[in-house]
Design a protein that fits this description.
Helix content is about 45%, strand content about 10%. With about 350 residues, it is mainly α. It folds into 3 domains: about 55 residues; about 80 residues; about 170 residues, hpI Integrase, Chain A (Orthogonal Bundle).
Amino acid sequence: MPRQSIGPRLVRRSGKPNFYVRYIDPATGQQKDVSTNTRDSEEAQEVLEEFLRDRRLSKSSRALPPYRVKIADVLDAHHARLSKTGRGDRFLSSMQHILEFWKDACLDAITPDAVLDYEKANVRSDKKPGRSRATIRRELSDLRAAVKAAAVNHKVHAIVFPKLPRDGAPRKRWLKRHEFDQLFAEAAKEYRAAEPLQLFLMIAYYTGARSGAIMDLRWSNIDFDRNVIDYRLPDRGELIVDHKPRAVTPMAPPLRAYLLQRYKAYEKVPEFVFHQKLDHTRRVNSVVKGFRATVERCGFKDVTPHTLRHTRVTELRNMGMHSHQVDAFLAMTAETQDRVYTHADHSDLQALAMQIA
């Protein structure tokens, strides 16, 4: 008859000064020793008590305190969740920078002072290279999302996440129609990315959707009979993804004609709108590299994929569309429109002034 386990206990190992916690791993059934990192018996006993407490919490599926949960584990779990929906690639960049700073620390290390130090250590300035304030804020926002997800899944006690660094000044850049036409024509010179890049430009210019929502599109999201693009995730009907609202947007005639032509050209319609040219089963996740190269050839400054969203909001407002209509078109509140996106076309101001009696 096998001897009954007496549970985790303190032991000494030959030739080692410190105490060890010896226990049986329930997953493998193998005996394991974990160092207490101390030779003092009282301190070792405290370590054993903490070990036993954590085991009890784990078995009862209760959330652990922040000082017992590593930042790396929380990020890994969140990346695994995002990867299931095809949105894990961008998160990896944030994850890398976060772990370079916090390394093996636990969640209790995310303090207001640490957040400020993270910003100072990484933000770009005249004296040192780095990343923009907007990028730093996005990385910390990704960390906050991972911590919140861990709390929602009862893996850790909820914490008050420190205030994020301030937003940078809103960008004023938007494209005139002739600039967009130039960008679209120049995109045709991209060797492998020409087709997906031009497709992205058309959808982004006419609908003003965010890059992530556009790249997620399946052909099932495009309803030619109803003349709409439904940016919500298929089978889930999600109106909000990663805290960003998604819209059901009508198609302008040029966009509908462009998409319908591509749709009818397929012998067998693929699942994803953005796919490899020679293998329609392989998805294209990003057109950023080709976009940057095209912008550089055009000689444009401060133009990013998000500039097309700025452009669509500005055009809609300049057309006279009310803020609540823009909200319905783009899933964007009037407050956000006024604070960030809308910019008057000052070329018309002289003409307007001449009409004042």
